[in-house]
Inverse folding.
């Protein structure tokens, strides 16, 4: 299925609220019967920041990893980027994080052109990257902003690590470490959250738990999310929109208009999308 | 079950002492039997008497105080220089290019070989000994600090930058703690060198200190005092090592190698 077909489907759908992305629509649709349980637009809550890439190219030497990427992500949208290794997934994320700069083209966050590290952008690494010599709570409050102890404690409780504040990271399991890393990212209330295959090293059960956690946190906080993953199923479960990156270009851009939380009831539709995306990877 | 465990714990605590105690017992027995001449090797009891008498008169404490003072001053000066250079070269490539090869060249000069030069410069005063100790301890600390800093996980530094840490916070909270295990290994190496240097320096030119005390005793054939001096060096060395281990356990409590069930921050 092509991107055009998906787009057509999107705009024909009666319950399509993507048009109102980032706009606080409050209770306007409260009484609309066709409304899915929780819609992305309603969840955005206005905290997320819109992100856009304009003709972004990144080359290492003579090898172009990204070629003229144009991408607009509305505030609060959950975008998953899938693709094979070497397809430019990690590069696009490093550019958005400000760890690298584009060879040409520009990035804008919240409508302003940006360069370098941004305080509104937070990144979750594949390995949790916790400081082993600091306790869990000191890791979460790494920036030591005023009142970091209280804020960190609250966020840790929110990600299900109540009572583990004073443990060393080395005694935590892989899933718990990623929870700490997530808490560390959330403490500063980011407008954009980037996730670089953060669940890739976890076992299937822990990963499913982390998916639920992330989906809930994203619904509550409303940050714009870019999830890099090689797992198409993960992308379909979590994202509003899936991009397939192939050979440095966006090969597919599809919306995932499935109601949340995405349980067994949407399995058939999810499987169809999964197959369609996989064909493009 | 519990009584047996207690017994085993006590046994584990005592085991390291079994061998030295056995040696002392055999030594005392052979000396008492008249098998070794007291002039060459006095009995442990004679050494104990020498200890008691010099301790009572305050001579021993005076010499120990002087030696410990020199050791610590030399360690503080040399350690600070080695650490500062290690940090500088560890975080700055230009500094490394400018200084590291000189440091490697100097490091390979046996520092005891410069004793004649040091005596020419400082005479036989305190400065000479402190200088020698400082030179001796600076290199192991330099080397281990440098490699410790270079070995800090680049991923953690990248993370710290993304999470908005400034230069100072990055150094204090990421780079220094990451290098600390290596720095402490350097410190333990340095302590060994510190005592070695001090012994040599004090036996060559001094008018006080444990080294002077033993050399002086040699002149009067007081073998028991010579042995006492040697034993004191061994004990001081052991004490210094115990202190660094305690420091390691405290500073590296986060490290899995130092974690026990009750070790919570």
């Amino acid at each position: 299925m092509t991107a055009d077909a998906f787009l057509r489907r999107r705009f024909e759908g009666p319950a399509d609220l993507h048009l109102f992305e980032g706009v606080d629509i409050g209770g306007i649709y409260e009484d609309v019967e066709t409304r899915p349980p929780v819609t992305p637009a309603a969840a955005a809550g206005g905290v997320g920041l819109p992100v856009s890439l304009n003709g972004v190219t990144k080359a290492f030497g003579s090898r172009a990893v990204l070629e003229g990427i144009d991408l607009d992500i509305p505030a609060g949208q959950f975008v998953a980027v899938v693709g094979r290794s070497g397809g430019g997934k990690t590069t696009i994320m490093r550019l958005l994080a400000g760890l690298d700069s584009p060879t040409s083209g520009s990035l804008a966050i919240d409508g302003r052109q940006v360069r370098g590290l941004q305080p509104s952008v937070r990144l979750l690494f594949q390995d949790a990257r916790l400081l082993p010599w600091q306790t869990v709570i000191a890791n979460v409050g790494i920036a030591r902003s005023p009142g970091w102890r209280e804020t960190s404690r609250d966020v840790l409780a929110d990600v299900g690590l109540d009572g583990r504040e004073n443990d060393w990271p080395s005694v935590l399991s892989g899933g718990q470490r990623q929870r700490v890393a997530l808490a560390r990212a959330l403490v500063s209330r980011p407008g954009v959250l980037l996730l670089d295959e953060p669940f890739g090293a976890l076992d299937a059960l822990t990963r499913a738990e982390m998916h639920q956690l992330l989906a809930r946190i994203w619904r509550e906080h409303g940050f714009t999310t870019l999830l890099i993953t090689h797992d198409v199923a993960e992308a379909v479960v979590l994202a509003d929109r899936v991009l397939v990156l192939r050979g440095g270009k966006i090969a597919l851009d599809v919306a995932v208009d499935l109601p949340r939380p995405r349980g067994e009831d949407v399995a058939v539709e999810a499987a169809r999308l999964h197959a369609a995306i996989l064909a493009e990877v | 079950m519990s009584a047996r465990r207690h017994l085993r714990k006590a046994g584990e605590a005592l085991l390291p002492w079994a061998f030295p105690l056995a040696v002392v017992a055999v030594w005392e027995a052979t000396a008492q039997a008249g098998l070794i001449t007291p002039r060459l090797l006095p009995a442990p009891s004679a050494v104990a008497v020498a200890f008691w008498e010099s301790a009572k008169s305050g001579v021993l404490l005076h010499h120990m105080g002087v030696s410990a003072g020199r050791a610590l001053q030399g360690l503080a000066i040399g350690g600070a220089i080695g650490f500062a250079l290690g940090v500088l070269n560890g975080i700055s490539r230009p500094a490394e290019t400018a200084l590291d090869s000189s440091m490697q060249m100097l490091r390979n000069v046996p520092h005891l070989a410069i004793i004649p030069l040091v005596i020419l410069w400082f005479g036989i005063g305190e400065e000479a000994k402190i200088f020698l100790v400082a030179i001796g301890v600076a290199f192991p600390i330099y080397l281990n600090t440098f490699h410790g800093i270079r070995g800090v996980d680049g991923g953690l530094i990248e993370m710290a930058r993304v999470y908005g840490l400034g230069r100072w916070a990055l150094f204090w909270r990421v780079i220094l703690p990451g290098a600390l295990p290596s720095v402490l290994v350097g410190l333990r190496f340095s302590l060994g060198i510190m005592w070695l240097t001090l012994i040599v320096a004090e036996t060559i030119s001094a008018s006080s200190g444990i080294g002077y005390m033993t050399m002086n005793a040699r002149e009067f054939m007081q073998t028991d005092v010579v042995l006492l001096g040697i034993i004191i060096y061994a004990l001081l060395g052991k004490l210094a090592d115990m202190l660094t281990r305690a420091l390691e356990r405290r500073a590296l409590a986060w490290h899995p190698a130092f974690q026990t069930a009750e070790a919570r921050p």
Notes: The two ends of chain A are 12 Å apart (CA to CA). The longest helix of chain A spans residues 204-221.
